[in-house]
Amino acid sequence: MVAFIPFIVLIALLVCCISVFGNATLDGASQVSLIIASGVSVLVGWCYKRLSWDNLDKEMTKKVASCTPSIIILLLIGAISGTWMVSGIVPTMIYYGLQILSPQWFLVSTCLICALVSLLIGSSWTTIATVGVALLGIGKALGFSDGWTAGAIISGAYFGDKLSPLSDTTVLASSVVGTPLFTHIKYMMQTTVPTFVITLIIFFITGMVMNVSGDGDVQLFVNGLSHTFVISPWLLLVPLAMGIMIMRRWPSLVVLFLAALVAGIVAVVVQPDRIREIASGSGAQGMLVLYEGAFRTCYDSTALSTGVEALDKLVATRGMAGMMPTIWLIISAQVFAGALTATGQLHDIMRYFQRLVKGTASLVASSVGSAIFLNVTSADQFLSIILTSSMFKDLYAKMGYEPRLLSRSCEDGGTVTSVLVPWNTCGLTQSTVLGVATLTYLPYCFFNLLMPFVSITVATIGWGIRRTVVSASSALSSGPKPSADFSENQI
């Protein structure tokens, strides 16, 4: 029970922070809570398990270093959010989208559009940061709350991410378990497609019965966008080129860098007045004004006047600087994960999940629950998938289940729920990019919420689950070997 002490402390601190700071909890209070919980974890390991400080320090440092690629991606996404808005790319997408999408079909269309884009490019992060931002603006104009729109965006993006052969998490889950990639994808469809169909039905019914009053805002937004930005379908060549690069498996960092760079150049060439507006008051002259404005678009917050207050808030950006609270929180979360791993507390808790296994349903429920738990504690979906597969791989084999059942369970619990945890790298990124708090969109992410339950239900029914002739009682009595299930080398 000692292993639960840091979690109890963290939960208590977060509850207090939410009650005191509300939506501003992620501005600093959550980070402090994670650091305090990390200190408690280290103290427990130091005093109770007599662990050396060098090992604790090494593990926490390693965890923080592991999130470096995510931090760089976040900074590039911050630059894209600024350059794609000021260059007119996102305003163009919103402008045409407002004239195509109707309120009744908006939610289900949003979900389907994000699903298709994410399926093609294999990235929920990129889908949400580009198409998702534009759809959020359309939703505002049509009168939908940010929670409903963000829920439809995230549901679609994570459906496509989960089934795309280009997705990092899909490739990771299949490879760490030892399941062929397309076997893994095909098997996931048994749980993923029914969940997505249910999600679409919910959004369809909601769109038909919800009374939204945004007709007047639509025309205001259209007029405001056309008077503020140069609107042209040629600007859509930038996201099209980005999608082609991703489909050709270019490195994500290279694609994001080029997307920000090209959009910055487009902003200077196509929207020079907006660039000068951003740099106004600096005292720069001539070409230096464009140079300063372009750089500020990448790293600083921007505010443009469109004549429509709601639209002004939509086209405002935060750039790279706006990502710093998120990066701070990611680092704090990784320190906490490092402390739990170094002290062995994470391993001790994971063993409780294995003890709950009695049959097929409980095995899948334990592995899915483990992945969700690790999303909360390790704050990273990749670590959640890796650790869950490591902990349960031998147990699935001993009980005679195919590896594809474990790889599917890892994704059903790990990939989709990561975005629902406020301090997880996915939850932090999407809430920052969309400007919608995690707890605001969480109730409307129906695909992400339903996925674990559908996975367990399918396992309970036994649909598509095959076993070799192995005695379940002997498998359970032999039990997993902790030293083999969880080791630093496997991670």
Give an overview of the whole structure:
The structure is a single chain. By secondary structure, the chain is mostly helical. The protein contains 26 helices and no strands. It starts with a helix and ends in a 6-residue tail after the last helix.
Give me the secondary-structure topology.
Layout: H1 5-21, H2 29-47, H3 53-66, H4 68-86, H5 89-100, H6 103-121, H7 124-142, H8 146-163, H9 168-177, H10 181-209, H11 215-228, H12 237-247, H13 252-270, H14 272-279, H15 287-299, H16 309-315, H17 324-343, H18 345-355, H19 360-378, H20 381-398, H21 403-413, H22 425-434, H23 438-441, H24 446-461, H25 472-478, H26 482-485
Main features:
single chain; 491 residues; 75% helix; 26 helices; disordered C terminus; 0% strand; mainly alpha
Short description:
75% of the residues lie in helices and 0% in strands.
Q: What are the secondary-structure elements, in order, as H or E? A: HHHHHHHHHHHHHHHHHHHHHHHHHH
Question: Which stretches are low in confidence, meaning pLDDT under 50 for 5 or more residues running?
Answer: 470-491
How much helix, percentage-wise, in residues?
A: over 70%
Shape: globular
Q: How widely separated are the two ends?
A: 24 Å
Structural class: mainly alpha
Query: Care to count the β-strands?
Result: 0
What is the average per-residue confidence, as pLDDT, rounded to a whole number?
Answer: 81
- Sheet with the most strands? none
Strand content: under 5%
> Helical stretch count?
26
Radius of gyration: 23 Å
